[in-house]
Amino acid sequence: MKKTISLIAIIALAATSLCCLSACDGKHSNPSVPAESSAESIVLGIHNNFPGLGMNAQAIYDRTYNVCLNYGEVSYVVVEGEPSQTKTFSISKSDKDISKTKEKELAKRNANSIMQGFASLKALTPEVDTLSSIKLSANILKASSLNRKNMLIYDSGLCTTGLLSQLTSNILATDPVIVADKLESIHALPNLEGINVYWVGIGCVSGDQQKIPDSYIYNLKAMWTEIIVRAGGTVTFDSTPVTGKQADNLPHVTPVEFPQDSLRLDSDSLSNISVISFKEDTVKFVGNKAIFADPASAEEALEPIGEYLKANPAKKILIAGTTAKVGSGDGTELSFMRTQTVKNLLVEKGVSPSQIECVGLGCTDNCFRVEDHNADGSLNEEMAAQNRAIYIVLADSSTAESLKSM
User: Fold this and answer.
1) What confidence score (pLDDT) does residue 35 get?
2) Is the domain defined by 7-238 classed in CATH 3.40.50?
3) What CATH number matches the domain at 260-404, 3.30.1330.60, 3.20.20.10, 1.10.760.10, 3.30.1370.10?
4) Which terminus of the chain has fewer CB atoms gathered within 10 Å of its CB, N or C?
């Protein structure tokens, strides 16, 4: 299922490999590279919101060379919307007695050949499902007869489809324990028992994907750590930036727009923010009603929005409301009424009604919602508080379009 990319890309990767070779003479200073026979599965993110292979190929080369030197197995899985691209290379020992120098030379050759093979790999299906890619990689490792099993993940960890899609649920703001509990309850955790995971590029993005806010990167690491450890593995994150050039003609990956917290808003800088969140600490409503609990606090919090819209009459926003899941209703009517309360306040302050649309999301699945119930069905109040919120979304953003189509 591999496709050949341009000769320029091959030459670029070969140059990277040569750089790796010059630094590798069978002696590794990298403690993450095991010095024994092992099965190594490499999960490669070569898709439209993650940088391509660059100087970070050194980490991949080091581990590939080590497997070749110690007669192990190297496999790969390409991260994409429907992961299926895999291959395993088994390195056999020579029948003849050869010197250590010759062994290293053969290991270099094999590693270089495998790395050049990676140059033809890229995603073939749209979107990104890293969880399914890790599952597939784990299954390959479990099928190996070798005792030591390692997985190198070269990917951002940001999913746009599958169970961990950030487009359908605010998974990165959800308690990692709840996420792992939910996966475990539906038997969706990968089998990582005895597998050591080494992750390069967590939180790194490129293309149309905006930089992931630091708080979300922290949550991203916490979520994957909880999932991997719960699944029986160990994980080490390499914080080296990933800056390689993307391959051409990659399938579409929908950019994720991350909400910015409403604290310390400045109306002059709002044009660069696509989503703003107002939680209970700034815009709070009376329980089960569309009435501000503290009108003065709400007015102060929303003032920059009003000033921005009045200064930019051609701009339009969508006000989206969410609620916690309590009782049998879906909360859409209540959340819509609360967005109307916010709209009325802005209109009273001089904003044109034509600049504002409203949508009530309640506790239905959407890109802002976090899971607010524990695995045993009890309400998680901390997460529930996050769902009691109002979001201001620029009307011309992809997020607004997706919310209006729900």
Assistant:
1) 59
2) yes
3) 3.30.1330.60
4) N
Alpha-carbon distance of 103 to 18, in angstroms, equals: 18
Q: Let me know how long the chain is.
A: 406
Among residues 387, 128, 121, 130, the alpha carbon closest in space to that of 255 is found at 128
* CB atoms inside a 10 Å sphere around CB 289: 12
* The pLDDT of residue 58: 86
Q: Write the DSSP string, 236-265.
A: EEE-----BPPPSSPPP-PPPPPPEESTT-
CA distance 309 to 17: 53
- Assess contact for 18 and 128: CB atoms under 8 A: no
Task: Note whether 320 and 276 are within 8 A (CB).
Answer: no
What distance in Å separates the CA atoms of residue 252 and residue 81, rounded to the nearest whole number? 10
Give the span between the Cα atoms of 179 and 372, in whole angstroms. 10
3-class DSSP state of 151 = strand
Tell me: the pLDDT tens digits for 36-93?
A: 789 999 999 999 999 988 767 888 999 999 999 999 999 999 999 999 999 999 998 8
Digit-coded pLDDT (tens) for 304-329? 999 999 999 999 999 999 999 988 88
Task: Kindly list the distances between the CA atom of residue 369 and the CA atoms of 222, 240, 372, in Å, as whole numbers in the listed order.
Answer: 18, 31, 9
Interatomic CA distance for residues 228 and 280, integer angstroms: 33
Helices (H), 231-363: 295-311, 332-348
Question: How many angstroms separate the CA atoms of 107 and 354, rounded?
Answer: 68
**CA distance linking residue 316 with residue 267, whole number of Å:** 14
**Please, are residues 400 and 394 in contact by the beta-carbon 8 Å criterion?**
yes
Are 7-238 and 260-404 equal in CATH topology? no
User: Between 349 and 404, whose confidence is greater?
Assistant: 349
Q: Judging by beta carbons within 10 Å of its beta carbon (0-12, 13-18, 19+), is residue 368 exposed, middle or buried? A: buried
